[in-house]
Amino acid sequence: WIDLATPSGPGGRSVLETYDRRHTDRLAVAEAARSRAPALAEPSRITECRRCPWWPTCEAALRAVDDVSLVVRGDAALRLRGQGITTVRELAAVDPAVGLPGPEPDEAGPSEQGADPVPDALDLVEAVALARAWRGDIPLVRRVARPTVARGDVELDVDMESLGEDGAYLWGVLLSGADIGLEPGYRAFATWDPLPTRDEGRSFGEFWTWLSDVRARCAQRGLALRAYCYNEQAENRWLRASAERFAGMPGVPPAAEVEEFIASEAWIDLFPVVSESFLCPHGKGLKRVAPSAGFSWHDPEAGGENSMRWYREAVGLDGGEPDAPQRERLLVYNADDVRATWTLRTWLTSPRVLEVPHIDDL
């Protein structure tokens, strides 16, 4: 148990006092904006900015002043400002061996509860490298001598498309590697009934039946199977949810079977590989990273939020007639996503990845 009223944070404030203080501050900022009074806050990039509709507005303001939060977000940016580093240019000019200018951490005064300390030596090296990469328009910087990705005799690239909390309407897979008696290439398992729908269970059951067949064929031939995704959180969520929601439908597996697959060495998430292997000044999303491996999407508007709009039009979710061209657009988009994953992982295990500058080079 935690007593929220007991002083526990910097400055002797309790959790509730800290909350009240921050809430009051945010109300004042909002009221000033509503009344068109002078702004009480300046933009600073945090993790949530990537999904905020106002990000383009704030990004323009941050770029105009070369704000340090463009490369180092959240509390780390606040700490850097406290040390006199307010711009990307200033951060890029820091010598990590010398350290930051300004007061020492224990002289900088009390901080907000939960704030991170001033970056340690390793963090500072990476922060400076990020700033230099940003200024040099370098999309990736290697943190390691050479990235490693487990490879298989038979390989699948998997990508799922969903509509918010309503369900997963499309599972796309790309089969490659050794011959197991199945046609290689892209397959889509989809429902075009508007979500939520029981037909989602039918499409998921067909996907799982096909996946199970691939796994069985590999086992019979003594071949190692690896199935790849990019950021498994969404795929794992809908694997589990689909098994639970459509239990008993043809092809839908028991929950334990899904958990066995997720925990197996066959299921590989490439996002941690990228996170551990690279600094990414412009973000770690697949659409930010895959171009460095040489991949580009057919659709110039490819993106998760746009795909939800396309889906609504494809199935006539808002009352219009179902739009067949939008269905095809979604299939091309999904096929591109799995091919992007394939391109990324083959690049990661090729000599070409060594063309990416190493952090020591910066």
Automatic annotation (TrEMBL):
Residues 96-116 are annotated as: Disordered. Residues 264-348 form the YprB ribonuclease H-like domain. It holds the Pfam family RNase_H_2. This is YprB ribonuclease H-like domain-containing protein. It comes from uncultured Actinomycetospora sp. The lineage of its organism: Bacteria, Bacillati, Actinomycetota, Actinomycetes, Pseudonocardiales.
